[in-house]
Amino acid sequence: MQVEYIKSLFSKYKETGLSGRYITNKDIEPLLNNLNESIVIETIGKSVLGDSIYGLKIGHGKKRILMWSQMHGNESTTTKSLFDLLNTLLDKDAKLKYILDACTLYIIPILNPDGAKAYTRINANQVDLNRDAQNLTQPESKVLKFIFELFNPHFCYNLHGQRTIFSAGNTNKLATVSFLAPAQDKACTVTANRKIAMDVISVMNTALQEVIPNQVGVYDDAFNLNCVGDTFQSNNIPTILFEAGHYPNDYEREKTRELIYLSYITSLDYISKTNTMGENYESYFNIPENDKCFLDIIIRNTKINGDLVDIGIQYQEKLIKDKVRFIPKINKIDKMDTFFGHREIDAKGFEVFDDHGQLLKIDNENVFVILNNEKISLLPK
Questions:
Q1: Which domain covers residue 315, as residue numbers?
Q2: Whether residue 280 is found in the same domain as residue 316
Q3: Which end of the chain is more exposed for a tag (fewer CB within 10 A), N or C?
Q4: Dihedral sign of CA atoms 110, 251, 160, 192 in order
Q5: Any idea which residues are catalytic in this one (predicted)?
Q6: pLDDT at 1
Q7: What angle do CA 202, 205, 211 make, to 5 degrees?
């Protein structure tokens, strides 16, 4: 499928009721109420605090694909893209009926509604659900396991978001989208079902390279059976980790949303049209492994105690009055020749002060800095 056509679909079917980083059940429930009768919508369980966990089934094909998002409550980009996808699949004018003829999708848009509401990675019991795949101590983990066994998928899409620190290899290229075909044993054996997952990832990477060349990465495949992806892969189900990352000046992740949508459509098109057995898996290994080469802001060449150093700033995401705010925090003070900033400021040897006239220190939170008598905002532009 042509990338330009998919981009045109996104422009037409983007769900306008969802935007920004803070997405909760309160945001998606009106959308669920408006979906047409061709989608089965059910409450499949309750969170720790009693909020509903929803499941949606669409399509009637033999190839079953399980997709779940916001296992980590503060990773919402993939959820937005899911509703863009649903809007597309429901309109016959999009000409994607063949996907629904070939595939049945089961979608859990928000697995961790308590974490989504609090804008945290963990659930209300302070547990990372992605480390609870074996012990199954949490109600949300049990819901996912129940649906996995009931639906018996042929593919699993494990949908996440990643921080702004990641690069595609040890380079100045962002890892705007990342993937992983998780391991299923300690030896990280390239098994038959991993090859299938790698094959599908390779197809998505080829499409993404047309839009974000050299900005796709893969994660280290070190095995951890407590992780959901590794567990499902160990059950011989091809499982793909999706990670929605940073695009320049896109802290609300709206451009990344489009790229995840592109990945959804590309992969579903491929799965629906082929009986992939992983024959084309090898190009997966050409995708660079993620590194951590980025900071949100680097102030270069500032003088502290007579030495020229760089100041690295990382945004802290804080939920304030139902909106995610990006608070600049001093992360490093050192020479940072091997790091890159999403935004870089050259201090040209001048000292940099906070808005109280004090030199910057690690862990300080500063909305503004004073450089050469100029007040500079550090907030995202």
A1: 295-377
A2: no
A3: C
A4: positive
A5: 243 (proton donor/acceptor)
A6: 84
A7: 160
C-alpha span between 242 and 159 (Å, rounded): 5
Rounded Cα–Cα distance for residues 214 and 280 (Å): 20
Please name the residues in contact with 47: beta carbons below 8 A apart, sequence gap of 6 or more: 53, 112, 113, 114, 123, 124, 139, 140
Which of these three, 265, 292, 319, is where a domain ends? 292
Q: Please write the tens of the pLDDT for every residue from 278-297.
A: 999 999 999 999 999 999 99
Catalytic residue among 140, 243, 289, 365: 243
Provide the β-strand partners of residue 359: 353
CATH code of the domain containing 368: 2.30.40.10
Structure tokens at 276: 């992939």
Instruction: Please check whether residues 327 and 304 belong to one and the same domain.
Output: yes
Q: Which of 241, 266, 292 is the last residue of a domain?
A: 292
pLDDT digits (tens, 9 = 90+) for 7-30: 999 999 999 999 999 999 999 999
Whether 75 is catalytic is no
> Residue 266 sits in a domain of what CATH number?
3.40.630.10
d(CA 164, CA 217) in angstroms, rounded, equals 13
DSSP string over 128-175: -GGG-TTT--SHHHHHHHHHHHHH--SEEEEEEE--TTEEESSSSSB-
Asked if residues 329 and 367 have their Cβ atoms less than 8 Å apart, the reply is no
Full-prediction pTM beyond 0.85? Answer: yes
CB 360 within 8 A of CB 330: yes
Indicate whether 262 and 305 sit together in one domain. no
- How far, CA to CA in Å, does 277 sit from each of 56, 228, 292? 27, 23, 33
| Element housing 310 (H / E) | strand 307-320
Amino acid at 242: F
For residues 189 and 286, state if they share a domain. yes
